[in-house]
Amino acid sequence: MTTAITPQASNHAGLPDLASRFVKVDDLPWEPTTVEGVETKTLLFEKASGLLTVIMKMAPGAALPDHAHMQIEQTFVLEGRLVCGEGECLKGDFVWRPAGSRHKAWCPEGGVMLASFQVPNKFFVDGAERDILGQDWNAVWGKCTNFAALAS
Question: H or E element: which one contains 90?
Fold first, then answer.
């Protein structure tokens, strides 16, 4: 039985476990995050492993606060540019970040990116460790299958 989902996809109900899931991305709603100016569309999510693929939209000047990549993160810039202390990714460029890397990132003019995470990022905000939805990272993700295997 598949445990991966596209949470807002209306055409997936009742599909057999091994059927392909076609996603009408334009029909998915933009979902708010706790980061001002950042919204996402969840394309694929699997809670047991933490696997997550999103389209992320950042308003001009929006910034992701200090965060760590718990496993490999992949980002393809569809529009705008994504900047961090190590460099920038322009439209059509791709960046991936190793597990354990930590940084801040921002979009001076705004941007849209396709991002894939093996386990959601851990954000460091006001002394707490949170995910992008503001949930306690360790309580929600600390026992993910993929992360547990990496940590052992």
Answer: strand 87-90
* Domain containing residue 126: 29-151
Q: What is the pLDDT of residues 99-151, one digit of tens each?
A: 989 999 999 999 999 999 888 888 888 888 888 888 888 888 887 655 444 43
**Under 8 Å between Cβ of 97 and 104:** no
Residue 13 lies in a domain: no
120 assigned to some structural domain: yes
Q: Are 107 and 96 in contact (CB under 8 A)?
A: no
Residue 6 in domain = no
64-84 as b/e, with b when 16 or more CB fall inside 10 Å?
beebbbbbebbbbbeebbbbb
